[in-house]
Amino acid sequence: MFPLRTLSIALAATLASACTMIPDYQRPAAPVPEHFPVVSMPAATAASQSAEPAAAAPADSVEAAPAATAPADTLAWRDYFAEPRLQEVIALALANNRDLRVAALNIEQARAQYRIRRADLFPAIDVVGGQSAQRLPGDLTVSGESDVSRVYSATVGFSAYELDFFGRIRSLKAEALEVYLGTEEARRSAQISLVAEVANTWLTLAYDRERQALAKSTFETRQASHDLTRRSFEAGAVSELDLHQSETLLQSARADLARYTAFVAQDENALALVVGAPVAAELLPDTLTATVSTVTELPPGVPSEVLTRRPDILQAERALRAANANIGAARAAFFPRVTLTADAGTASNTLDGLFSSNTGTWSFIPQIRIPIFEAGRLKANLDVAEVQRDIRVAQYEKAIQTAFREVADALAERATLAERLDARLRQVEATRASFRLSDARYRGGVDSYLGLLDAQRTLYVAELELISVRLIDASNRVTLYKMLGGGWR
After folding, report:
1. What is the pLDDT of residues 194-211, one digit of tens each?
2. In this structure, what are the phi and psi dihedrals at residue 123, rounded to the nearest 5 degrees?
3. Parent domain of 302
4. N or C: lower Cβ tally within 10 Å for the chain?
5. What is the pLDDT of residues 112-129, one digit of tens each?
6. What is the CATH number of the domain that holds 225?
7. What DSSP line would sit under 356-376, residue for residue?
């Protein structure tokens, strides 16, 4: 066994000093500006804002949350989504969502592939025991009689082990490592997307519940108004036209209530699907106005450098590094490949004499393969590897450009949302005041019932539009969380 042990030590020393032909990796420069564009409101709009004091917000409304003091790319999801019920729903999704589970299993698969590549750096040592038997007919033996010969053997050794002088196996191992690390980034990206999807679904449920509550309140108000109008019609105080117009508004609110009730049920089903488990009633939101402030505001002036820490960008870079490592393997294929086969053991023609003295055997078979003529195959393989690397560079740059556009779009919308919210709040207050005046003028006999109905419709539409803008505001912050890489430290 001594020669085999010495050979193993020599192989380990050889591996320790082996090099690779992987090109030096240089991260491509990000083809985007250093900072995201800043969107400012026109001066005329700002002037019109300051000319009149803001109307008081209704009692059940909640203003946008104050700006966060932490950098945008250091906020973890529990810090970003501060509402306790939403946090519990997100945690439930992270534990039960099947897509995220598949992403985790993909990591395990890639890790196993990497271990396979790493194992190629070491010889696979096997213990082999066997017997061979051969019968010769009499005309082939010296004695003229048939003869059966048997050989028993027990050996330990390795077969066709490649000495990685030029780093071919090490390059393949490096490629497998980058693929494995890329799957980890894919899992992080999937987790960020899941958190954002859960938050958006949860907010959409709050949005539809608030619309349902508004439609129910409006229906009840219009029902009472219609009952009063019907009694007035029966007393001859109002015309039949007023009665039908009142019923038109009543049935419209009734239809909206039924529609929003269906939306709420569908939202609850969607939330259960994305979470991967039933969601308890106490974890569901009540209304959107009670949850807008639970999504943290991001500060302005976020540098575009944060994009390089987005998991999908890191995954694209890992793919680029893997392609770069593959070039090293393609280059090493031009050089000689040395393989070794060696074993040592014992052999005997009888089983009981297998481990007797003087039955030791060994064999050592070095082999070198030098490529001379491959009809351009090796050069073509190298060209393929280099083109794949160039493709990965272009894909990496495109991923950064796409990410920059996504964040810039979200920030552009963020810059105008405060203005939109303020405008919708003012609109609701104005239409509410108009409705009160129309009601007073109708009761005083100054205006027709048609004017009052029109004021009711206008107020209802304005309140729905305010709820919609609040959802856009909350969803925009969720989008920024996702586009900026989920706030992972």
Report:
1. 999 999 999 999 999 999
2. -70, 140
3. 2-121+165-335+377-483
4. C
5. 888 887 887 778 878 888
6. 1.20.1600.10
7. STT-EEEEEEEEEE-----TT
